[in-house]
Amino acid sequence: MAEKKSGEKKGNIGFILGILSILIIPLYLIVLFFGPSVSGIIIGIVGLTFGILQQKERKTKRGKIGIVLNIIGIIIGIIGLIIVVHVLMPIIEQQMQSFPTA
Fold it and tell me: For residues 38 and 13, what is the distance between their CA atoms, to the nearest angstrom?
């Protein structure tokens, strides 16, 4: 039984990182900055790697779910980054230009 548990570590890590990659993305709405969106993408890529490695060693349900969650997190992160860059940045630049310079 201990062998089974230790063999699922990568799948569990991928699963947890998949959840984090999805949950961290909405933070960009609060912060309006690149950090959380990029962090979600990076976490998603790392989690996807762990999920794939787990599935290559031994197929597990959590490994498969981790792969799916990480792909969703990466896609949401990319969409969030596009929104920040193309929609919000021009608005922020316009607001910054309205401030008087010293």
Answer: 19
